[in-house]
Amino acid sequence: MNAQNAIDLPPADARNSAQGSTWHSQMPDDKAMLRAAVELTRDIAAARPGIYWPDMLGSAALGYAALAGAILAGNPVVAVLLGVVASLALYRALLFIHELTHIHKDALPGFRFGWNLLVGVPMLIPSFMYEGVHTQHHARTRYGTVEDPEYLPLALMKPWSLPVFALTAILLPPALLIRSAVLVPLGAIVPPLRTLVWERVSALAINPQYKRRKPEGDFARMVFWQELTCSVWAIGLVAASFAWGWRPLLIALCVVSFTALLNQVRTLVAHLWENDGEAMTVTAQYLDSVNVPPPGFVAAMWAPVGLRYHALHHLLPSMPYHSLAEAHRRLTAHLEEGSTYGKASYPGLAPLLGRLARSTMKVR
């Protein structure tokens, strides 16, 4: 959902105040890097069901088991610890929505349905909220522009924008519950409300200017069934809470809020966010994106399902998450030291957050 309306976009000339950028929007493409990315990875470009299914199912099972434990635990410390485990596991399970937007529809039979049934609908984040949205972020002429639903020039905005951006994620779970339990059913009988809900609160977007187009064809039918299922589930949750108490739902909302916060912090460092709205070359897009490769295992927790290789993902959007580490190894070995490819790699979360904060402090 678009939860960033409280953040003001910077003026058009704000780009000039962010000094020390490592890229320019119209820098020439590094054709050797682009060619190597394609040629060296052809044999690992197929999604493997034997990895996707166990990973997604195991993450969801662990997440729900830990959530149940947090709800049932009598000891507050145990409840908090189990809640953190649940958040991390469900975070990983949820991020398979990113894979769903890129894999070929025939690559993993039943995976979209299974993910929606087990993760998307119970978490009130069905796959339609990302499908048809995220691909616009990868469009050659849209990335970093006002037409990109997933881009804000955060490095060019005021320092207070960063905590606001991160903390608004905490409100996402109750907002999703209200959306599915109240707004969608009301929209079924009030067409203007239905249009507003679809355009403004039916996409996992961060750009406050983004308005979603009306769905059509098979996608519209998929949206209908996912919306219906989510509304029935959300109404059922609220009704059960009236009947048996609100504690389980409140704990679940807290767990999902922490999951949403994790994802929002990851989003803060997925890119450098230094573009002022110009269309960018593929190489410029790559350098405005971030890899956090090994060594270090912590990145696999805050950027799971291959998202620690986010810059590489922008070079190879359809590459399955389980192949990104090998693709990175091959490209690093093939390209010379000091090549363009290595310039998108960073040591970790804290340095990236520090860089972003320093950039905002230079904005007048």
TrEMBL record:
One GO term (biological process): lipid biosynthetic process
Transmembrane segments annotated in the record for this chain: 62-91, 111-130, 164-190, 222-243, 249-265
The UniProt record lists the keyword Transmembrane: yes
Biased composition (Polar residues): 16-25
Pfam family, one: FA_desaturase
Spans annotated as Disordered: 1-27
Keywords: Membrane, Transmembrane, Transmembrane helix
GO cellular component, one term: membrane
An example molecular function term from Gene Ontology annotations: oxidoreductase activity, acting on paired donors, with oxidation of a pair of donors resulting in the reduction of molecular oxygen to two molecules of water
This protein's record includes keyword DNA-binding: no
Domain Fatty acid desaturase: 79-338
Name the record gives this protein: Fatty acid desaturase
Organism field: Novosphingobium resinovorum
